[in-house]
Amino acid sequence: MRLDNEYVSRYRTLPAASYTEELSEKAIPYLPHCRIGRDGDTGGENGIHTGADHFFLSTPMHYHPEAEILYVVSGEWQYRTASAKRFCTATAGDLVFFLPYEPHETAIRAGGGGYVTRCICFDTGLLAAVPGGQGAQLAEGLAGGGILTPSGQPLHITKEEDADGSLRRAFDGMLSALDAPGECEELMFFGALCTMFGILRQGGRFDAFTGAADVGHGDTSVPDRRFARSVIDYTEAHYAEHLTTAAVSAALNYSEAYFCRMFRRIFHLCYSDYVSRLRVAKVRPLLGTMSVTAAAVACGFTHMSRFSKVFRQYTGLSPTEYRKLLKKEE
After folding, report:
1. What is the pTM of this model?
2. I want to staple 192 with a disulfide (CB 3.0 to 4.6 A). Which of 64, 130, 173, 261 is the partner?
3. CB burial class (10 A; 0-12, 13-18, 19+) of residue 182?
4. Three-class SS state of 98
5. What is the mean pLDDT of the chain?
6. Which among 103, 50, 87, 71 is positioned nearest to 232, based on CA atoms?
7. What residue spans of the chain are helical by DSSP H?
């Protein structure tokens, strides 16, 4: 799903927002899952391996116009971009930097306990204000694709590489600024942001952000990203309608066979499952103000029995139980 509107809704006085994702062991089995090889390979079209690890997708394939910095607080997280065939692992203390408009997803390994990540998304145009031209160069690199490594994965700084904790402190400073009310929010955030990228440049990481777009990624990364973004955009705009692979592939000017093959290779699930997940995500907030039937119909569900089954599959609760939970929280 495309998350730009969700982030924009959290903006206050500057184009940046933060969120925390916390998953307990109890909630994990209800997440959509896939099987991935122990080396992180997705295993071709169906993602099935002999001796594969069982992963649960915590954040589905999505993108947004902001750059994103993900910090792993606890647990073991897997991440992957649409340009890469393999998942990589980030553990507690690691930082991962995602490109603007780069489709990406995260997953977690079954049976690993609780998991917590904190994320900050920000408009890269903020960096253009840095004097001396360095900020403009960095902002251009971020927007142009320089943040991806040759394998197609984003820049990953491990806890060991940040041995003195300076990047962690800069990240915490950005978080504190976003959480702090008052007139100093902009100065605090901008100062911490500049500190973070100054440390990266000082440590020789600056070049990773200023490379030419798509250099070293191979010719396959560009169509993969373009395909992922086109599917995400179209589905986001039409999820309340009747969607079939034949209709969507025709609307996007792909053959149905090519569409299905590319979709499963990039998203690791069939298109109908992807649509169901998106519809459940859209219907959940509506259950607080609408009847179950009205909310389901508004999000494209035409059969209530199917809706109830899918909703429970992805949330662990029936729509009615979830609605009561929302009312109780209010």
Report:
1. 0.73
2. 173
3. exposed
4. strand
5. 78
6. 103
7. 4-8, 134-144, 166-179, 185-202, 221-238, 245-251, 256-267, 271-286, 292-298, 304-315, 319-329
In whole angstroms, what is the distance from residue 320 CA to residue 312 CA? 10
pLDDT for residue 201 is more than 70: yes
The fold of 221-329 is: Arc Repressor Mutant, subunit A (1.10.10)
Report phi then psi at 14, rounded to 5.
-145, 155
User: Within 13 Å and on the Cβ side, how many CA atoms surround 226?
Assistant: 9
230, 258 Cβ separation under 8 angstroms: no
Range 135-140 contact pairs with CB under 8 angstroms and sequence separation of 24 or more = 135/194, 137/210, 138/197, 138/206, 138/209, 138/210, 140/210
> In the CATH scheme, what is the homologous superfamily, with its name and number, of domain 4-209?
Regulatory protein AraC (2.60.120.280)
Poorest-pLDDT segment among 12-26, 77-91, 143-157, 187-201: 143-157
Helices (H), 70-184: 134-144, 166-179
Judged against a pLDDT cut of 60, whether residue 63 lies above it is answered with yes
Does residue 205 or residue 287 have the better pLDDT?
287
DSSP 120: E
